Amino acid sequence: MSTDSPARPRERAALATRLPDSATSRARHSRRATLAMVLLAVLCMTLMAATTALGSAALPLGEVMRAVVGRDVPEGTATIVGQVRLPRAVTGLIAGAALGLGGLQMQTLFRNPLADPYILGISAGASLGVALVVLVAGPTGAVLGVGLGLSGGATVAAAAAAGATAVTLLVLAASRRVENPATVLIIGLMVGYGVTAIVSVLVQGGFGQLERVRAFVAWGFGSFAGTSWTDIQLLAALVFVGVVLAAATMKALNALLLGDAYAASMGVRVRRVRIIVVIGASLLAGVVTAFCGPIAFIGVASPHLARGLLRSSDHRLLIPATLLVGACVALAAGLVAQLPGQDATLPLNSVTALVGAPVVVTVLLRLRRSSRAVVT
């Protein structure tokens, strides 16, 4: 005799009708993610072409393509494309991808939608390193760099990397003593505030001549220009290491979305993952700052744009999508900053803020609406 109640056949029927819908939903979501990735890749290539073709003087796209592949073009065009515009475009591509990925890692690790790759004081440490070389050491720092086989730009990049590394090591040492990620975040913020105060003293305290102060301020505006192909090779190699570290923690980051306790119950070694994520994000932010200066907002905005496009929090999808979104945002901002057809340029950070600020405001408004919904 069957023990099923009259309701159970209806429940089974309802479940049977839901299963195809669930499979259909997953298939639809997969198609949406694939389409979004393809569109982002096409947009990225389009922005690369536009960045290379446009500038103070526009170049025909066909001539640009011939210069890229090494065909016979005028020497001036070959120089502009090969030594100025193409390196700038590739630098923007790599830097934007790195900052977007670093921001995604920090937002997930600290469960803070407004976190960015610089939240642990990486930018402040890089600024201190550059300030010590440009403002305090001055010609002595340049001579030391030459003695080490470095050019002026490479000396500044090395100083920025050293400062960022020092701050990262300090935060990592502190993070080994605490369990709560919020405490690590506060420690990083306090370190950043302290280092920024030192930089302000160096700038305002008369430690550097006016020309040096102007050079330091110009570095702080951020720029994708001025990198050589040797610089780009090093930048790409270090960013690749950061991407590999991020890929190795994809499953752990998905588990951390539900909290440290849940992640630990799933076998995630939370402290170890936290250290790997901090090292990876700090590497991405530090190397970009070393070669391009501190570039704001890309790390905050890109992960949210990627989530909005995919409608997913799965890091297996978010990591490649955020890389592409960060690259697109950086290339678009760099293109606007160049003011095509004009001899002047805009500060890169001013342009990125125009993109990032609306995203931050939108996140705040959503958080406020969510909190109201919970209360009601």
List keywords for this structure.
376 residues, mainly alpha, globular, disordered N terminus
Strands, helices and their partners?
Blueprint: H1 7-53, H2 61-68, H3 75-109, H4 122-137, H5 139-147, H6 152-175, H7 181-204, H8 210-221, H9 229-248, H10 250-256, H11 260-265, H12 270-292, H13 298-310, H14 315-337, H15 348-375
Helix pairs in contact: 1-3, 1-14, 2-3, 3-9, 3-12, 3-13, 3-14, 4-5, 4-6, 4-7, 4-8, 6-7, 6-12, 9-12, 13-14, 13-15, 14-15
The geometry reads as globular
The largest sheet, given as strand count, sense and whether it forms a barrel, is: none
Estimated share of beta-strand residues: under 5%
Number of strands: 0
Q: What structural class do the secondary elements suggest?
A: mainly alpha
